[in-house]
Amino acid sequence: MVFLKAIIVWLIFIIAESVNGTVRMFWLVPLLGEIRAHQISFIMGSLLILAIATIFIKWLHASRTSQLIKVGLLWLLLTVVFEIILGRFILGYSWQRIAADYNLLQGGLMPIGLVFLVISPVIATKVRSFIERIGVQGSKGVRV
Question: For the chain, percent helix, then strand, then coil, each to nearest 5?
């Protein structure tokens, strides 16, 4: 059940990241240029992933570090498959174009993002625990 829920959370990531990518293409790139837009989008995407993971981590019921890493690895696998299907078969990108996103020497930030994705369940668990420990209240006075 943990992995089915993890897939649902990943779908939320993909929706959020698609919005992030759309904002980058239509607003940030014309305003800031390609490189700066990618950098800002990367930071925003990482924050989105951490926020979503933190919101849903308790719902996943994954408590052991090994489970959390397995959830992160599932998210990594789903993301890479999604990126290849979207890039190659829907958008028609060349394999070189897709690979460039994974090449740190060419400015591709995807490897860093994927490492962050793998460890995000562990980080989210710690963030969630910290938030609960200090007693942060939600919008209706309900503990998060």
Answer: 80, 0, 15
Q: Cα 123 vs. chain centroid, distance in angstroms?
A: 12
Torsion on CA atoms 1, 46, 29, 86, rounded to nearest 10: -30
pLDDT value of residue 107: 85
Q: Pick the closest to residue 49 from 118, 135, 108 (CA basis).
A: 118
What is the residue type of 100?
A
Is the pTM higher than 0.85? The answer reads yes
* Contact (Cβ atoms closer than 8 angstroms) between residue 116 and residue 48: no
The list of the chain residues with pLDDT below 70 reads: 136-144
CA atoms within 13 A on the CB side of 66: 0
The per-residue b/e assignment along 95-111, b for 16 or more CB within 10 angstroms, e otherwise, is eeebeebeeeeeebbbe
pLDDT given at position 116 = 97
Which residue type does 12 have?
A: I
Provide DSSP, 129-142.
Answer: HHHHHHT-B-TTS-
pLDDT in the model for residue 138:
53
CA distances from 13 to 18, 20, 70 (A): 8, 10, 17
Report the DSSP beta bridge partners of residue 137.
Answer: 143
